[in-house]
Structure formats: structure tokens, C-alpha cells
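Lab channel / #folding
Pinned by the channel admin:
"Please post every new chain as: sequence first, then the C-alpha cells as a reply. Keep commentary short and put observations after the output so the thread stays searchable."

First post following the new format, from NK:
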Amino acid sequence: MRGAAVTSRLMGLLLLAVGYPSAGFAQDALQPYQLVRSLQLVQDRIAAGDHAAMPMQAKLLEMTDARMREADAEDFKDPKNFRALLVYGMSGGNPSTVEAAVSRANSLDPQELAIAKGVINYLVGRPAGAIEVLKPIDPMTLPGDLGAFLALVKGSLMATDDPAAALTLLDEAKLLSPGTLVEEAALRRSVGIAVTQGDAARFALASTQYVERYLYSPYASQFADSFVSGVIALHLSISQDKLADITLMMDPEREKVIYLRIARRAAIDGLSDLSAFASARAEDGRDGNTNQGDPRALLYSSLSTVTSGTIEDVRTKLAKIDRGKLSDGDRALLDAAQAVAGEVVAPPVSLPAASPATVAPRSGPEAAATQAADEAGLPPVEGAVSEQPAVAPSGGTAAAAPNVPAPSANSAAIVPTSAPATSAGPDATDPTDAAMMKTRRQLDLIDQMLGAAPK
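Reply from TO:
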């Protein structure tokens, strides 16, 4: 209630500022620190799930930027205004405005100048320079408003090179600014870092706190990405009961989506138990029948058991799936699963009696052509990439385009279509052996395709 009242007062202030006859009213009437504090209040409301406040945030950023561009040395004699300038920069402010305003500020002590330089480096994309300048500065020794943002920035910058130190800094950010956008961002980033550290306890704690406090934040989709990846990566360390405890704090629709995403990833990665658990939770819902028959849940629960002893049951489930309710990528997975299931139960194909000339091992080009035909008969997987991914100009792995064909046979461990006469392997002229070899080729290709599917 109190937050809503604050938001209403801020909206009145914005309307007054916009409609006032004097163009410089907002800048003249309010000090920089007052505008920045108003911006923080709005951002905290957004973090708590008040999406209607997002236009207010944009307007306040615009007003604050104009005020900071007009601020002079006299304004920055007040320490609150200079701290507000730095907080504004770390709240999504204009780096050129921050840099110009810092140049007009006089009588700054060395630590203030160092923080300003680090913030500017951070804003313009020079992380190494920002870390070098900010590393010696302890956020806990600064005023709370500035210290919280600085801890968040330092934690984000150090996440790759020193994840343990980054987690400590993010804890400090949460301690200095509870219930704010700073805490929301710190929790969200802690989840991802805990995954890279293999710290299941930290992952579960940060995830629990995030879901409790910020599930409706506009940035919650980023948390969901990290959460699903973490459940897959840490599946041996996180019990299904703990996973259920976390998701039960979500609303039913969000819980269902999370479990569907976990089930898909687990099925593709061959985590049968986790896939079955997540699929059942997505399909059954909390009341036991909410999501019965969801085609995605049926598909994902079938993928990891497609070659099991219950193959007829799996084929029946696959046949009931409504393809029209699946995405292109999931339709490709369905086709792949049905292809493998069909090969598993297909009877051996009798080969016609052949003369010595027809049973001789095939030549290299002919064998390659036959293998290529087998691959061409399989559906592409959305987002599939080769085992040698392209490298983006920045040095990272380039994003795969949708509907990329399956990798060539040269990069897969596929049983050859024929073996030399001296080989101890299966006899390609025997109908049963031939059927087994074909099934193995299909299974290898499907496994490769599923492994390359989007994570």
C-alpha cells in the first residue's frame, strides 16, 4: 500500500513537471539527488512486479539526464548530488552525461574520482579498466546507496575471473539494499554464478529467495533461464523434493512452463529420471489433472525412453501427440523419436538372393552415398549445430540458425554400411545383421541430433 502511494505521488510529480509552462521547471525545482531517489523508488516498484511503472522509469531517466547535464560545480559541492550522479550512471544512465558531469565537479577526493572513473569504464564497455580501478574500493565502507550499487557492479564484473569474490560482493549488495532492484539483480546473478561454481546449496538458496520476492519482476525470464540450466547442471546435487519446494512458490502457469523446459532439456541430455519427474509435474499439475494431455509433456517424457523395453507404450504415447500444438523444434524431436521407435520394432528385412558380385563390399563413394541418403531421410533439428561450432567475431560461439541440417557423417561415430571381409563385425549380407546395423546408424544419428538440439 505504501509503495502504491509513493508511486502515485511520483506520477503526480511527473505530470506537474511535464505540464508546467517553464521548460526548466523539473531541473530547477529538484536537486539531482531528489530525482535519482525518485528513480530508485520507481525501479524498486518495477522489481516487485509493478510493470505499469516502467513508463515512469523512462520519463525519470530522461528528466534526470537533463538535470545532470545542467548541473555545475556548485551543485556537486553537495556530496549527495555527486553520489546521485554515480548511482544514476549505475542505474542505466547516459555514460556521456556522467563523464561530462564528472569533469565539471571540483574538489573531489581520490576515492570519489576513482569510483567515477570505474563507473565510466563500466558504462562504456571497458570492464578490465573498471575492475582495475574499482577492485581496491570496499563497498561496505561507502554510504549505503552508493555502496550497494558499487557492490553489484563489482560482483558482475568479477563473475568470470573470480566467481567466489563475485558472490561475496553480491551478498554485500543484497545486505546494503534489501527489497530493491539492486537485490533483485544480485539474486538473479548469484543463481548463474552458483551454477558455474557447482554450488548446489547456494543455487537453491538464491533461487528460493528470488522466487519468494521477485517472481513477477520484468527480468524474471533471465532468472528462469539460469534456473533451468542450473537444475540440469546440478541434477545430481539437487533433490526432486527441493526442486518441488522452490516451484511450489510459483503460480501454476509459471510452474508448468518451468517443468516443461526442464523436461525438454533433461530428455535431450538423457537424464531419464529428471525428465520423467518434470514431465509428470508439468502434465499432472498441482490438482492432479490441470494439464492432462499437454503434448509437450507427453513428448518430453517419451524421448528418454524411446529405446526402452516399453517401446510399444512409448509408440502409443507418441502417436497420440497433437503435432499442431508443438513448435517446429518439438515437431522435429517428435519425428526423430518416432523414427527411432519404428526402427526398434521393425522386423528384419529379408534380402534377395545375391550373386557374389552383389554381396561384395561397396566402394567408398557408393557407401558414402548410401549413408548420406540415410541422413537425408531424417528430419532436421531446430538449432542443430556441427561438432565444430562457428566462432563469432567476438571470440564466442556463434548462435546457430534454426533448421540447420544434421551434421555430416564425417563428424559422427556411425557404424559403417559395410565392413572389410576380414572384419569381425556383423555380416552385412545377413538380414538380421543388416537390420541391426541400420537401426544402429539411425540411433547414432538421432542421438547426435538430439544432443545438438537447443539447450
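NK: Residues 362-386+401-455 form one domain.
TO: also worth noting, The radius of gyration is 29 Å.
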